[in-house]
Amino acid sequence: MLISGIWRVDADGVRRPYLRCEVRSEGGNRQELFRPIDSGADRTILTSSAIQELGYQVSTETLSLSGLGEMSTMVEMDTALRLFLQDDSAIILNGTYAAAVSPTGWMPVFWAATC
Hints:
By secondary structure, the chain is mainly beta. The protein has one helix at residues 48-54; strands spanning 5-9, 15-24, 30-36, 45-46, 63-67, 70-84, 90-100. Strands 1, 2, 3, 4, 5, 6 and 7 form a seven-stranded mixed β-sheet that branches. It is globular, with a radius of gyration of 14 Å.
């Protein structure tokens, strides 16, 4: 299985891989997001800006995850990710995903993190 992505040049001039996905919003609709990816990540984490774009309310129950040498405060949220394959078909991943509470600079949607 090959998941489709694109290469984008960010504001800092660096070319990074991005993933096109649709994420279920708080209202149940799907919203398309393009987010940088970390192909070595062991966990899917949504950014704080993704939470805002999707209209989710941040839970008061938090957890801490580490990655890239730092600890980050996260919340868990139930949603569905719809990822697109090279032939334009899609797979849907329903689950509970971690989401960053506050922005921490450049952080991909698929971020390397360990519990």
